[in-house]
């Protein structure tokens, strides 16, 4: 790896990492959270403490909110924009150094990925793919999702790691289908996505950063062949077609957004399914109710998204001076929006730490964000989550964990690395592809 990559890491991640590490050593709970050192109990306590201090809290290094109303209003307010990791709010020469050291590969968490640009570019990119992800378009995918789920369940026997053997495989298969990616690519996509997921965090280590960039390089090389194949019509219809045929979009714009769809499409949903498996095993009453009333599965998925949010936080930057929650936020200031904290705000969700699949307002959670950047794949994630969890618990009624679940160790993307399970006997054998 080149020296310029190290310079880029240092400017983007190394300096914040050193700063956060010093603060964490002094016991700063937010720094501990951002470095992935806070256990779930400590994290929840931090959310409560922050809310007790106000809707918007100023810390020595950043503003932060765990308050539902503040998080939601910032996400929906056009006076705030996304936080470009390449230089936002940092003094020169940091941004200049980062640009000089740009490895020039499509990165889902840097511009021109739609996740990291404001209007008007954001609307241009999003519009090109949005119609494939509307609830109506996704409804038509329902049978395909059920078929893939049944095929995966048919392969599960005895002892299994439900994370790699099941939860990760459904979303990658569905996204690969939509993007025209062949089956033999699934393991590569999973490996690349897993290494790149860390880039959503703040203060990433040099080793993890290097691995992530290496994975993005592999993906870039692959997209360099894949995009022309779509352009030549060799892969049938894909969700990328409107982007690829848009003459105003460059290869880099198409590739960055394709990389975003690939990673966002399964690195998040795997956590919804994994977190759901653990929550339901910990709450046998809820599971019994779902067995008796399967119509409650969609509501259970909302409650999982609320209580164990797969995306725990996002960041926004003020475009101009703004009055917010009685505070003045200056142009250029960043706010960390703790979506997971907002989803446990007792002002909105009664008894917020309780898992309640009949909670009337669970669907109001901010697990998919809100405003212009609200999750494009929310409808897809919802049907995948319900199909995967319902299918698994119906087929293996005696399912239990064979070892304590192992956490993934990321901060923004929250989920498990391994779920070793003893499946017990299957109830019936779904015909593969049925
Ligand atoms: C449980 C699963 C998922 C969760 C919790 C989730 C969560 C989120 C959140 C919180 C955001 C907003 C981030 C921000 O405002 O900074 C987002 C954006 C996005 N998500 Fe998802 N997501 C999930 C699944 C998916 C799937 C299956 C896709 C596949 C299409 C997808 C594609 C996207 C895209 C493209 C964006 C960027 C939208 C934009 O910037 O306009 N997500 N997601």
Task: Describe, in plain words, how this protein is organized in 3D.
The chain contains 19 helices and twelve strands. The chain is globular and about 65 Å long. The model has no long low-confidence stretch (mean pLDDT 93). By secondary structure, it is an alpha+beta fold. The protein has a single domain, classed as Cytochrome P450 (Cytochrome p450, Orthogonal Bundle), CATH 1.10.630. Helix content is 50%, strand content 8%. Helix 8 runs parallel beside helix 19, helix 10 packs antiparallel against helix 14 (251-267) and helix 15 crosses helix 19. The strands form four sheets. The chain has a five-stranded mixed β-sheet with strand order 1-2-8-5-3. Residues 114-115, 126, 133, 260-261, 264-265, 268-269, 272, 310-311, 314, 367-369, 373, 375-377, 380-381 line the site of protoporphyrin IX containing FE.
Can you tag this structure with a few keywords?
8% strand, single chain, alpha+beta, 12 strands, 434 residues, three-stranded antiparallel sheet, Cytochrome p450
